[in-house]
Amino acid sequence: MTPSDPITAICPGSYDPVTLGHLDVIGRAAGIFERVVVGVVRESRHKRALFTVEERVDFLREGLAGLDNVEVAVFSELVVEFARRWGAKTMVKGLRVISDFEWEFQMNHLNRSLAPEIETMYLMSSPQFSFVSSSGVKEIASFGGKVDELVPEAVARRFRELYPQGRPGAPVSPQE
User: Fold this and answer.
1) Which residues are catalytic?
2) Is 162 within a domain?
3) Best label site of 39, 63, 95, 169, fewest CB within 10 Å?
4) What is the spatial distance between Cα 147 and Cα 155, in angstroms, rounded to a whole number?
5) Distant-in-sequence contacts of 60-65, Cβ < 8 A, 24+ apart
6) Total structural domains within the chain
7) CA end-to-end span of the chain
8) Residue 133 C-alpha from the chain's centroid
9) Are 150 and 132 in contact (CB under 8 A)?
10) What pLDDT does residue 79 have?
11) What is the domain-level CATH number for residue 118?
């Protein structure tokens, strides 16, 4: 990295789907770093994605359209290798609850053993998003619940397409 290179951070995740909480953390990171690369993991070994990687990238690009110093890229390697590829010395992660901390604490130690030159910065979620998770949003939407105040409009619209009356087997009236 030369003195003229922008100070870059990555914000890695599955973003399945992106929530307003994710956008909040990314936006705040964009205010700290000269360049932020949002890394969308192509496939997770421990989670099966509901949305394709292309959909997740499109949702992010639409939700981050007003941030000129933010890029979205797909990765399928170790997160530290993704950071190195972009010249990032910092990974930014959001924390909502204690269970997030426990997972991130483990991942931080593993990542530091692989790449001690890459630091992880944690941003606490804004209070209005502290309860919002991608898995929770998927659960609400799959039963036909409204998620408009939790996700970008494009994501809410896609959920309405996927689950117009809730998922099969979900009750459709209070009597069922």
Assistant:
1) 22, 47, 96, 134
2) no
3) 169
4) 9
5) 60/15, 60/18, 62/152, 62/154, 63/18, 63/23, 63/152, 63/154, 64/23, 64/26, 64/27, 64/38
6) 1
7) 62
8) 10
9) yes
10) 96
11) 3.40.50.620
> Does 45 reside within a domain?
yes
Q: Please give the Cα distance from 140 to 123 (Å, whole number).
A: 26
In a domain, 170, yes or no: no
For residue 34, the enclosing domain spans 8-129
The pLDDT, as a whole number, for residue 167 is 63
The single-letter code of the amino acid at 64 is L
| pLDDT tens readout for residues 68-91 | 999 999 999 999 999 999 999 999
Tokens of 62: 């639409």
SS3 102: helix
Residue among 64, 84, 89 nearest 9 (CA):
89
d(CA 80, CA 167): 37
